Amino acid sequence: MSGSRRSRWARAAFAALSGLIAGFTALCVAELVAAAVRPEAGPVTAVGGAVIDRTPPAVKDFAVRNFGTYDKLLLQLGILVLLAVFAMAVGVLALRHRRTGAATVLVFGVVGAVSAAGRPEGRPGDALPSVVGALVAAGVLYLLAGRLRVPETVPSPAAGETDGGAQRALDRRGFVIAATAAAAASAGAGLLGRQLQASQLAGVSASRGDLTLPAPASAAPPIPAGADLGIRGLSPFTTANKDFYRVDTALVVPRVDADAWRLRIHGKGVARPVTLSFQDLLGREPVERDITLTCVSNQVGGPYVGTARWIGVRLADLLREAGVKPPSKGGPADQIVARSVDGMTIGSPVEEVMDGRDALLAVGMNGEPLPFDHGFPVRMIVPGLYGYVSACKWIQDIELTTFDAYDAYWVEREWSREAPVKTQSRIDTPRPFAAPRAGTVPVAGVAWAQHRGIARVEVRVDGGVWHTARLAAAAGRDTWRQWVWEWPATTGHHTLEVRATDCTGVTQTDRRVGTVPDGATGWHSVVVDVT
Hints:
The chain has helices at residues 3-37, 43-54, 57-67, 71-96, 98-118, 128-148, 164-170, 172-209, 278-282, 315-321, 350-353, 409-412, and strands spanning 262-267, 274-277, 287-294, 305-314, 335-340, 345-349, 360-365, 368-369, 379-381, 395-401, 424-429, 439-448, 454-461, 467-468, 470-471, 481-489, 492-502, 524-530.
């Protein structure tokens, strides 16, 4: 390779590096400014949130199904990779068009600013981190690109000569010094921003750590001794907080100070609007219940279902105090729109919330204050409805309206506006492709039909006759139920299938459909090789 070509490649490599450093500067400075605004205003979070809002339901469902709670991490990593590629390209552009390259960085800042301020929960100040980060990054890129430019006064090399002038004009030493200083200053800004945000969050964490849950005025009945069969590989009756599924759109988990939290109840048919503080809520009669929650994104046999002991206040009581009546009693509103601090809207039917079931504004989960991931300080729970129409986390506003007047977040994205949980069952053990030994093999799992209860579970092998499984003791119609069937397994390749019947006499259908628009159906099956 000739000296001239080596010089061009070297300059291009340094130019790409200058773009990366400028991009790094933008993110670090934005992180520092976000500490003064709020963490959700950072450009990666803002752009990621905008991407989530505009992603088709089928793609979201695919991400949840295949990546679970890691879907947000993968999205953030993907954004960072794209930003890195974009930054390197801009750096190369700035090599020949210095001002254009710097201006392109500002375009990136505009995208971040619009994404941050334009989200449902966005505020005008949310644009500031992206704007300031882009301005500083544009200056850094302009400075570094200047170290790489070849002055017009440097003559072209004569035939057979190396491009010595260009090599000298590259000013490698000056570039390295400037690049190192910019990278170090940016890293310092980013670390300072993280430390400031951590300091702010420490106070919020303290508000949770200092909370003592009130004793329930209506305690949950003791879990029957036979509700948990204790079979190895079978999901425990109560799901530990650390194992409870999490499906939401929040790239940054909201950290809400309980002392500053407020809930507003207003809207159509509300005779007496209400605003409650956290202490107001704790001062009411707390109710404790075991309730199973299910995500509508749960595929047949999927993991997005769990049971916890919740403590909170009956939502129906608060609505009645505000003068709300259900449609069956002449109320004008048929939808509750719950709004989260992160901008999420969840639409729930008023009739079901007020029909006597234990619809709660929950403050505790399994004996401790709600974890931040699960909605601290307050979340909404309605037994028998999928989470996307009932389980608003980090709730701060309840508006009474109608389904015809307003479409909540997921309804706008082609999901059904009303979604009762469908009767489902799952085989937990043996696991798919297991190799149990011939003989008696316990086939066990869970079944659920919240607010209806499970009456029967049946298992069959290789499409044969259905065998009735033994049910664990029922802990209530709002919780799942364990089951087991002792299978006289014979050597060979076998397919196990399960189906459940709820307490209304309805048996789950074998028709396989996906989760969109109102939940999956079909029988769960497991293939095993008995040795």
